[in-house]
Amino acid sequence: MPRIFVAASWPYANGPIHIGQFASTYLPADIFARYHRLKGHEVLMVSGSDMHGTPLLVRAEEERTTPEAIARRYHAVHKATFSRAGISFDLYTDTHTVNHERTVDEMFLTLLENGYIRRRTEEGPYCPQHRRFLPDRYALGICPHCGFPDARGDECDHCGRPINIRQLGSPRCALCGTPAEFRPSEHFYLELDKLESAVAEFVDARPHWRAGTRRVAENFLSEGLHPTPITRDLDWGVPIPLDGYDGKVFYVWFEALIGYLSAAREWAIRAGRSDAWHRFWDASEPVRQYYFVGKDNRFHHTIEWPAMLLGAQGLQVPYDVPANEWMNLGGQKVSKSRMKEFDVFVPSLLDRYPVDVVRFYAALLAPQNHDTDFDADEFERLRDEILANQLGNLVQRTLVLARDKHGNRIPQPPPSWSSTEADGVGSHLMGAHTRIEEEYEAVHLKEALDLVLEEVREANRAFHEAKPWGLDPAEQARVLYETIWRLRAIATWLAPTLPTTSERILTMIGSDVPLADGRWEQALRPPTPGQTLGKVEPLFPRASAAPGTPAAPSPGPIRAPPPLAIRVGIVRVAEPHPEADRLLVLTVDLGEPHPRTIVAGIRGTYAPEQLIGRRIVVLANLAHRTIRRKTSQGMLLASEIDGRPVLLSPPDELPAGSSIDGTPEPAPEISIDDLGRSPLVIGQVEGPTDGGGSRVRLKDRSITATGSAPPGSLVVVRLAAPDAAAGSILTFGPAGPIRPSEPVAAGAVVR
User: Fold this and answer.
1) What angle do CA 48, 50, 219 make, to 5 degrees?
2) Of 19, 97, 510, 712, which one has the greatest count of Cβ atoms within 10 A?
3) Which residue would you say has higher pLDDT here, 217 or 723?
4) What's the pTM?
């Protein structure tokens, strides 16, 4: 099987990710990458924030700040959102890096040398009021294709077609409405016409593309390709690497596409294997590249980007572009400008719901072949009907019966039972496994999910028809054993879409989690009779708020934050995880009779020998989790600098097991979702408040917090909710607060 390169289109860093982007691009890419990792394939999944382009400039002018300030702010928001949503990028970067600029320069100069780029002077729209040219979104006018009156200068939001700015009818300045004048300016053009035959041959060789994607590419080819400008009259962006072009940068749809290549290079550098990117990019390598985009990006990924790669020579070209349609809101495209009406930003949804509830709705209603519509009532109904009533109840009823009637163990089926019976459950699961796998391979992700849900319904039907609660012990054992096997298969098949739920199901049935590479075939392996079950608990407790309702300025917490048992730990043993390059397995003394095992993703920053004897900060009441077949009995707390983990430190000389103020004894167990609802962040103390607390800065805002520390100190603050205006400084009594082990930016997340 070839290596798999998964690319997700780069979101503008000008506002939070909304449910439409999540459902059409980022979740499908993640599901597909997770599936191939489960299959044991070598996968590289990349994306990043588009830090340039006119959307950021427009936002910066609206807020009277710099485009870099806007870009940095929302890049951090994007990274946090994707992390919370379980989007498993191998690298999420941005386009404002030295590596990206160098890669763009190389591509430009190669295409120039190969004869596919030339200079041309043409007239462009100019605003006499602002005394500036009007690239892309700075110009509005009438779409030449569909007549939409507010089409942008680069593409039409209504019909999705790219636009040459000179094609706009009645062009005007987007900032002040002044009619545009046209004045001459020299720019560089990518000569797509010279590459048309190569692109046509490339498209013809891809009959597996979705019909809508292929149709778009064929339509552009049938109309003939034309030179397209790749530079703009702007100061913000990647500058042209030639003398005499000050005040001009590369067009965002030229340089952002090259981000897929620059991200792979950055990933290789960060991994300490600077040449490893060639394994996913050299034309001679056995690689399949998949680009997950929305339908408005099909031209760029089926025509423009392949043309650039073919012109540069020696590089891989896309194997598939599984472009999705739009998830609409009230029949209209979801856009950041409409968020004042309805709050369907992904961070807000994750504040209200467990991550897998949001993932499930977005996956089930994904606009794979046609536009879909976000509906808050449907969100609640599908959650209750499918996740809670069908899947959750089946897990609960099966495992409670096994717990109560079979000693909390997987029952032993009768001696006459065989896993290989022609019409038995094993044969049935084999057939379902094959069908589901075929859909995943073809990037038919909705169909794969539908087949898994069919198996949930089939398992419920078989369970209820058998009525195991009224059977004799031997027959009851058979029914429960077969249902547990079905549950393990369902959890494995669901793992790409609902990783947290799958892990919880498999933990409850006492099985290894399916999230480690190469564990796909475990769906077909019969469970081990007599294996001890885990703690049985509801998968989907009832939610208490509905998404899609008018957004409140400062939403409060849905419930009181659960208590945190944060304690001082001393690392006694540190070893590399045998199955994961980025994980360490730590043996930590928490002042208890026996040390705990904690799995931490810090291997790329901290060598095992650096950690022996080190005093760390541990969240001790987090539910135990199995990570790559190692059970983690708590979580080491750290912040980060540019993706690099930075350990937190307790005050000096505190003994192992010391707890922060307010820790109850015993502390109730909490989940990762509980922690996400009341996050921990790094803050910088600005000074005391009149009430005895502190003013604390969190990046671009200040809050009040209980507790005190000297002004300028970096501390860890717990917020009641992500947007809360108040919080508490985590302190070990008079010994002092928790602090990062090296300077970290205020607002950095602790996880």
Assistant:
1) 100
2) 19
3) 217
4) 0.70
